[in-house]
């Protein structure tokens, strides 16, 4: 239900609202969208003991669904296909949400969390501080350590990076954009 309401809200975004996205964010969005239909392997380049499971798995991102206002990028961790990053132009910037699903396609109780850009960033780097919806969701689900999350995405000609920072945490995965890999199966809930 949460994702459905989110999707309905996006349908109300007008083309004129999209025109107000800062140029640096348009360039960032378009640089990532240029990889639509491709998948890339990555590796953990920063993390702690909580990230050991990620570091031991094959990590693949797939720029799978692309429109003028939204990108859906599944992030596969081994056989786990539960994660999809959703990047949306909002007219006032970019919004990052994490769509988490169970294997049967149903939504996880912690899903659609993320944040909106607080500054224009650059054509290569964008940051997404945690939003109020996510803070409430984290608190309700016993994840109080996540209420100060900031997610960062970097896109350069040779590398895409997904990074999560907060006090005592700096998790980072770098993906090699120069070597596309075979496309993974669809993420759970997005067949």
Automatic annotation (TrEMBL):
Keyword entries, A-Z: Signal
Signal peptide: 1-19
Protein name: Secreted protein
UniProt organism field: Shewanella corallii
